[in-house]
Design a protein that fits this description.
By secondary structure, the protein is α+β, with helices and mostly antiparallel strands. It is built from 4 helices and 35 strands. The protein folds into 2 domains: about 80 residues, no CATH class; about 325 residues, Neuraminidase, CATH 2.120.10.
Length: about 425
């Protein structure tokens, strides 16, 4: 009777796994190779005695069953090779060099020329320091200093290419109302007009008409608008609740969704919507759970994904069309003070949060899959989608706090999916 050499099959499997790890596109080739190995096997000698022993009809049934079993095995091998293989997943994070300074509770802004502006240092004499990352050369260069040191501020890319940096905290002056403007053309900073209210841990959103909405971060419900054309701040209608450490997301219809994190002194699940056309706020439904230090990401279908938070693996989806909240798949691990980045394929990369864990959210299946960890645990860092589809994770604090990190990492989508 003809037999299959187990060692040969093991070698073939090992070869296929190596090919898959080296090039995921070779999975079909390996699948065909397995089939080609099984198909030419000669018939067993005892098969020719089946008609005499069992009758021709029974033999045909047994033969069909045997063939179906072989096909099932082959299909199972193919399905296995096509499924995610975390154990052989190649590394997806690389190190793009070290920043000039350690940064945490800072901002990262993608500029029109593809460079990334990093601004703010949490403590020390260089709190006003800023630097640029060039993704093409992988270099870091200093780019002037803000008029005032700050952390916990916001940075908004304006339509004219400048960057508005507002509010934050300075060790000497406390919570700030001041603002700075960065000009990429001259790579210089100028002091801008101060906000109406000093704010820290607030949110800033670029509206469709080019104005900037700033909310939260202070014990007030006052919201304000910055107009780049006049260079002035004006108050708009007050929010329903005063908030800090909240999220603010521009929706496809031009409204802004503001959610959590603290409404008053309590961790909040409440949400409200700002309509720039009327300058008014309206309360909307609440998340399925209350948390803080979560993230909000606008998905390609117009819904908003809220993920993580202190001690939480929960995730929610908000549908602006219905105003309803629904729970979606739970994260693989707890993330808080982490980042969430929408990738070009529509998935969401969640990384860090007092750990090195990273995972992807698939909107089509509403599920999470763990990917390779970052090279270092980090929280209160930034994550920026680069023009080539990679993600730059920069700075933050390591486990247990300490000094701000000067390290950065690059995630390459598609390598680990």
């Amino acid at each position: 009777m003809t037999t299959i050499d187990a060692n040969a099959v093991d070698a073939l499997l090992a070869q296929g796994l190596r090919e898959r790890a080296a090039d995921l596109g070779d999975e079909d080739r390996f699948y065909q190779q397995v089939l080609a190995t099984i198909a030419p096997l000669p018939q067993p000698r005892w098969f020719h005695h089946w008609p005499a022993r069992f009758g021709r009809r029974t033999s045909l049934i047994l033969l069909a069953a045997a063939l179906l079993s072989l096909l099932a095995v082959a299909a199972g091998v193919g399905a296995l090779l096509r499924s995610p293989a975390p154990l052989i997943r190649p590394a997806v994070w690389s190190v793009p060099g070290t920043m000039i300074d350690g940064h945490a509770v800072h901002t990262a802004t993608l500029l029109a020329d593809g460079t990334v502006l990093i601004a703010g240092v949490p403590r020390g004499p260089r709190m006003n320091h800023a630097e640029l990352y060039d993704g093409t050369g992988g270099s870091w260069t200093a780019t002037g200093n803000m008029s005032q040191g700050r952390s916990g501020h916001t940075a908004t890319l304006l339509r004219d290419g400048r960057v508005l940096v507002a509010g934050g905290f300075d060790k000497e002056d406390g919570i700030l109302a001041s603002a700075d403007l960065y000009d990429p053309g001259t790579r210089s900073w100028t002091a801008g007009p101060s906000m109406i209210h000093a704010r820290f841990g607030h949110a800033a959103t670029l509206l469709p008409d080019g104005r900037v909405l700033v909310v939260g971060g202070a014990a007030t419900t006052v919201a304000e608008l910055y107009d780049p054309r006049s260079g002035t701040w004006t108050a708009t209608a007050p929010m329903v609740n005063y908030r800090h450490y909240q999220t603010a997301t521009l929706l496809p219809d031009g409204r802004v969704l503001v959610v959590g994190d603290f409404a008053g002194n309590e961790v909040s699940s409440s949400a409200e919507l700002y309509d720039p056309s009327t300058g008014t706020w309206t309360a909307t439904g609440s998340m399925t759970h209350a948390t803080w230090d979560d993230t909000a990401t606008l998905l390609l279908d117009g819904t908003v994904l809220f993920a993580g938070g202190e001690g939480s693996r929960s995730a929610d989806l908000f549908d602006p069309r219905s105003g309803l909240w629904t729970a979606t798949g739970s994260l693989s691990a707890v993330h808080w003070q982490h980042t969430a980045t929408l990738l070009p394929d529509g998935s969401v990369l969640v990384a860090g949060g007092d750990a090195a864990f990273a995972e992807l959210y698939d909107p089509s299946s509403k599920s999470w899959i763990a990917i390779a960890d970052m090279g270092a645990a980090r929280r209160m860092h930034t994550a920026t989608l680069l023009p080539d589809g990679r993600v730059l994770a920069a700075g933050g604090y390591g486990v247990g706090g300490g000094d701000a990190l000067a390290t950065a990492e690059l995630y390459g989508p598609g390598i680990g999916n």
